[in-house]
């Protein structure tokens, strides 16, 4: 009897599911007309632009000395940590000047990264092109305010998100 009980319960469950499906099935499925058209998915479009031409000549790349670590908060506290390595594109001959200003630049970058994190920029699929473009532009803006025109671009070398 103990071996029959699970089989009987499974049959009763299947029967109840079939009965509920038949009872809740709409009889007017064939009579329904499509009143709305399918909406195409909201896919962003990108246009390719010419790269910026710099009048200052050739560029050099400077790697920031340490990684940036940014917490990702949820309602319960810290959900994940994001680690970034950044490189800066500067005009030739500006490396030493940039290294002198690195503490201020790091501070500006951390502010921009925390704002991006608090706005939900690292939630979900944060490596989509739009999310990365908004992050790059925020970092570029922070670099321009802090270091001026010597920083031409900010490059994201590494980007890792680790759940806590």
Automatic annotation (TrEMBL):
Top-level division of the source organism's lineage: Bacteria
Transmembrane spans: none
Subcellular location: Cell inner membrane; Cell membrane
Cellular component annotations (GO), alphabetically ordered: bacterial-type flagellum basal body; plasma membrane
Coiled-coil region: none
Membrane topology recorded in Swiss-Prot or TrEMBL: Single-pass membrane protein
Predominant location category: membrane
Keyword Cell membrane in record: yes
Matches recorded under Pfam families: FliL
Keyword Membrane among record annotations: yes
Keyword set, alphabetical order: Cell inner membrane, Cell membrane, Cell projection, Chemotaxis, Cilium, Flagellar rotation, Flagellum, Membrane, Transmembrane, Transmembrane helix
Any single biological process term in GO: bacterial-type flagellum-dependent cell motility
Function noted in UniProt: Controls the rotational direction of flagella during chemotaxis.
UniProt family annotation: Belongs to the FliL family.
Protein name as catalogued: Flagellar protein FliL
Gene source species: Qingshengfaniella alkalisoli
């Amino acid at each position: 009897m103990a071996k029959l009980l699970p089989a009987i319960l499974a049959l009763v469950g299947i029967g109840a599911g079939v009965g509920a499906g038949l009872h809740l099935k709409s009889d007017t499925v064939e009579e329904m007309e499509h009143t709305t058209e399918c909406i195409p998915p909201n896919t962003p479009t990108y246009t390719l632009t010419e790269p910026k031409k710099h009048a200052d000549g050739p560029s050099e790349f400077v790697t920031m000395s340490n990684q940036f670590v940014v917490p990702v908060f949820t309602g319960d506290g810290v959900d994940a940590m994001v680690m970034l390595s950044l490189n800066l594109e500067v005009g030739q001959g500006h490396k030493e000047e940039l290294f002198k200003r690195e503490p201020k630049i790091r501070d500006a970058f951390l502010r921009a990264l925390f704002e991006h994190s608090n706005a939900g920029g690292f939630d979900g699929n944060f490596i989509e092109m739009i999310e990365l473009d908004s992050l790059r532009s925020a970092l570029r803006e922070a670099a321009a305010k802090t270091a001026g025109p010597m920083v031409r671009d900010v490059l994201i070398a590494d980007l890792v998100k680790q759940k806590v």
